[in-house]
Structures are given as C-alpha cells and as structure tokens.
Amino acid sequence: MISGAVLPDDRIRVALVKGVPSVTIDGEGLLALRDNGNPLPLSPPVTVRYVRDGITVDGIVSSRLTFSASSAVYVNGKPYRGLAEVQAGEKGLLVINDLALEDYLVGLINCEISSAWPIEAVKAQAVIARTYAINRRDARRTASYHLESSVIDQVYDGCAIEDSRARRGVSETAGEVLTHGGAVIQAFYHSNCGGRTEASEHVWGMALPYLKGVDCQYCLNSPSTHWEQKLTLREIEDKLKAAGHRVSGITDIRGGARNSRGRLKHVVMVMPRSELALTGDQFRKAVGYGVIKSTNFSVRAANGDVMFSGTGNGHGVGLCQWGAKQRALEGFSYAEILSYYYPGTVLFRPAGEQR
Length: 355
What we know:
Number of helices: 8
Structural class: alpha+beta
Number of strands: 23
Radius of gyration: 22 Å
C-alpha cells in the first residue's frame, strides 16, 4: 500500500472559525457532548462564548463541546456535515468540522470551481483536492485540525452548495490520489496560470520533481487571465506596514528581475533613503492575494498612484483550473489532465489499479 492511502472511512478535520469571541450553533435534533462524554442539555440555537477558563453555554463552562445533528450542524447559519467541535483557541474560539473525507470533497467542489464545468475537469478537481487533503492530514497528524477552510489550504463552505455533479465527480474517483515515488504528492493548484505554470521552488523554495512548471495555452481565453489593479502609494505602504515590513515614505515601486517562468522574482519599494526588495509572493501576501492576483505583472507609478497590469490568477504551481476546464472541453480525460500538470506522477486507485 502506498504511504497515505485513502480508506473508505477516512475522516478530515477542517478549521471553520478561529479567534472569535462567540459562535452560534444550531441544527435539527442538536446534541452536545462534553469532554467526559456526558450530554449537555440545551435548547437550540445556542451561543457558545469564549471565556478565560474555556468555553461556556448558558453559564456552563466546558473545555470542549462536540455538536451533532440529524442532518447538518449549523455554524453561524451555515450547514456542515459530520461533527462540529468547539474549543478555546489561542485568541478566541476554535471551531473544527470533523467529517468524512469524501463528504468534505463534495462540499468543496463548488467553492473551488463550478460543478457545471465538464465532468472530467470536476473529477480532476476531486482527485487533487483529495490528494492535497491527505497530504496535509499526514503532515499535521498531531495538530488539532488538518486544514483551514480558506485559500490558506482549500476553500470549503459546508454542504449548502453541494449538488449531484459535485458528488458524481467525487464518487467516480473515490479514494484516488496522485502519488510520486510511492507517496501522496503535495498537490498544489491554482485558478489560472496565464500561459505557463510555475516551478514550486520559485514560490516556496522547495524543488519538487512533479512541480517544475509546464506550458499551458488552455487558460488564455478565460475571463481571469488578464487583470489590472490601481492603488495609491499610501495604500500599499499601509498594507506593507500592517504585514510587518519596515517601510516609510515610499516614492516609487519597481518590478525586479523575472524568473525562467516569466514571473517577478522581486518587487522593489523605493524610499527617500533606502530601498526594500520583497519576493513577488511576499508582496502579494502583504498587499492581498485577491488584489495582486499573480506575480506575473508589470508595475508603473505616477503622481502617487500605482497601476498593476497582470496575467494569471494564483501562485501558478500545479494544476491550472481554467486550463483543466479547457482541456476537458477538448476531450482529455481527468487522468490525462492530471498527468500533464503533474508530470511523473501516478494516479493510484484504492483497488491497486494504476494508470
């Protein structure tokens, strides 16, 4: 068996809410268990609050509560399959959704792409999302949760937007993961590469043989390929300061050298007495991933304004989601799509059949 193989009863733990003072829990037939296994009497909906000694519901203090319901547990109005665990975190409440891995994937599909896309693209998304989740779970076995529910890991918003095509994509690839050298890979992916996917070492400093970058012309006609963004020097300086960078009185911003994939290695902030060079990814993270959508951009500053003109959306590593959609439209199978974006990998199936 491969390292990290998927089992039918596999579960995943996803952080839904972190660092908040309170959260509302609801659901039909809602039950709550304390750490000692005893039920906590309640009348839903209930508000769980963060206190110095743990968490409290109706004045009853606990260290952790596990909620279940007949169909779905509602966390701040959103339905989730499985269990919702509420405990005290470092700066407030931590809410974790503990559920079956395959159910998690069904809920994830329409957060990451559209299930209305060609089914082979949906199946490709199911496989890489499963692969990513298993890899992260193995890496974080001792942590209280395996994944965040945001772009930090994979976007997941519960079961409200599940549909039959999302479930079909997951069920027709049940348990399948991408492997390399007998282990589940780090299956990074992104929205749109803008023509060429990125090598992993250019973003995170780690060179992985299946993430060297490939040419991709399939995404170039998508609506997310080209973008522009206008900001002021002051806005950028405020964002950089908030991210912990030492900047003051920025007068200009320049793009530095580009790497072999055409993306900026550095972005240079010009100040009256010094300059600060940030990597392209550091700059994106500080200013906002949704604002500077990729590191493949040009920049021009004039009269206190800065105009960014870019191509692609995301870090560019691994599968290009819009490229996968177009390849599926052109008749490629999900296995062919995956082998193109992750060269040298093997699609492992639970029964042992490989292709």
